[in-house]
Amino acid sequence: MSRPPFLVPPAGVRAYSLATRRGGFAVLDAAPAGAPPLGTALLVPGFTGSKEDFIALLEPLAAAGFRAVSVDGRGQHETAGDREHRSYGLGALAEDVLAQAAELGEGPVHLLGHSLGGLISRGAVLRAAAGGREPFASLTLLASGAGRVARGQRWRARAVAAGLPTLGQRRLWWWVQPKADTSELWNFQRRRWMANEPAQLRRTGRTLCYEPDRVDALAATGVPVHVISGERDAAWPVPELDEMARRLGAHRTVIKGAEHSPNADRPVETAAALAAFWAGLPERS
């Protein structure tokens, strides 16, 4: 899970529930001051994550002229979920993203997904293309690969799925985060973990273990893609991300000093790379 560098939203960031045709979703929303945005970025978190994973990107993206909206997915943190596993299949979560994008107003929407959120966001782009829709001006895959995660991460996801019904969420937390402390961040991560719907954790963990390679289908949509990662990544090895970017004809950025969460490890550099990519895209008719 990402470790946000801070938890209090910067001045000008609004926290509210975004109403959509598929229900409400808790968001953090930052917009440029004094001018219409150059575009809107929809930021989708990964497994066990939340909107706060992007909190350090919001202010620099707004300063660069982009509205940035980070979201809790269905059954994540402050967005309600249910106990039905089908609610958390990749297709259902992709439809949630499409519904969120539809409510963000006029102008281009740049979709970004971190880790599992990248697989979900890719699914949203593919579903839109299959239906003849073009809701996204670009897709950024942030530390998210071509298909299922590396073997060690698959073992962890399966352990979470197996442990939830037997140990329960409270006990399993001590396996997920065995080193306790009294910091505000540790307490936040524990509250967030406990707020997640168990069915969501089990079903999305399965997606991480079994999602196939859909790179060729994504390339065929023609949506501009940006692949960003840190210098090291345990979920998808960096050479695999390099190869995925080559297959996609994607823009590629490696953030120095970052690992699986460049958004939290090096937010200023990550925001700069995102803004430069979005600003450099040609306008689509």
From TrEMBL:
GO terms for biological process: glycerolipid catabolic process. Pfam families: Abhydrolase_6. The keyword Hydrolase applies. InterPro entries: AB_hydrolase, AB_hydrolase_1, AB_hydrolase_fold. Coiled coil: none annotated. The keyword Hydrolase applies. Keywords: Hydrolase. Residues 42-273 form the AB hydrolase-1 domain. It comes from the Bacteria. One of its GO terms (molecular function) is triacylglycerol lipase activity. PANTHER family: AB HYDROLASE-1 DOMAIN-CONTAINING PROTEIN, HYDROLASE, ALPHA/BETA FOLD FAMILY PROTEIN. This is Lysophospholipase, alpha-beta hydrolase superfamily. It comes from Streptomyces zhaozhouensis. The lineage of its organism: Bacteria, Bacillati, Actinomycetota, Actinomycetes, Kitasatosporales.
